[in-house]
Amino acid sequence: MARRKKIYEGKAKILYEGPEPGTLIQYFKDDATAFNAEKKAVIEGKGVLNNRLSEFFMLGLQNIGVPTHFIRRLNMREQLVRQVEIIPLEVIVRNFAAGSMAKRLGMEEGTALPRPIVEFSYKNDALGDPLVPEEYIVAFGWASQQDMDDIVSIALRVNDFMSGVMHGVGIKLVDFKIEIGRIWDNDFHRLVVADEISPDSCRLWDVETGRKLDKDVFRRDLGSLTDAYTEVARRLGVLPSNVTHRPRPTLIN
């Protein structure tokens, strides 16, 4: 088998050259990171779960007319995706105060917001992904004003879909982040949801108990991250049959 060309490696995924022009293979790693990669571990089965869950959400979005980069799942850890030009922003949608927002504004975690709030952070690990206003984004040419209007519209549609799906299985969608990419057709482009949607990129709380079912389990040492992700997959009906229920994490020094 020919060795695949690695295009990019991030904290949780590797991108390889795809079989056809304009495609990539997205590989989900078992690595878990927090606090800008200051805390690290390898958690067996995490990549398999995130691959299946991201497939589930991307297909669901496509079914309601929200374009994504997802083409199909190839195996337990890999997806075939369209190659896109990533806009250097994390698009954050918040339904309840939590994490940095609660800390920044002195709000109690779990406080319902009057409406979904969309925020943007500049994707730069060295700077800690700082929050940026739309004025910066447009002024620095990261996205046009029309792009920003479309991005907010896409983010709110994703929120409506995700909130409904999660509520149906007894999970509260507290907040999430997505990335948006451009697919070019000559001088014109369209925006699509890219990267992944998984418990790595969402805050998910059990409606009844408030139990955290997302990466905060790892950040705050609240138990088994795999157990939390497995519970989300089980409720959504996408649990892979060969994922061990309670693997031991391997800490990275």
Overall description:
There is one protein chain. This protein is α+β, with helices and mostly antiparallel strands and about 250 residues long. The protein folds into 2 domains: about 5-85 and about 225-245, Phosphorylase Kinase, domain 1, CATH 3.30.200.20; about 85-205, 2-Layer Sandwich (D-amino Acid Aminotransferase, Chain A, domain 1), CATH 3.30.470. The chain is built from 6 helices and 14 strands. The protein has helices at about 45-65, 100-105, 135-140, 145-170, 215-220, 225-235; strands at about 5-10, 15, 25-30, 30-35, 40, 70-75, 80, 85, 90-95, 110-120, 170-185, 190-195, 200-205, 250. Strands 8, 9, 10, 11, 12 and 13 form a 6-stranded antiparallel sheet that branches. It has a 5-stranded antiparallel sheet with strand order 1-2-3-7-6. The protein has a 3-stranded antiparallel sheet with strand order 4-5-14, with no helix packed on it. Helix 1 runs parallel beside helix 6.
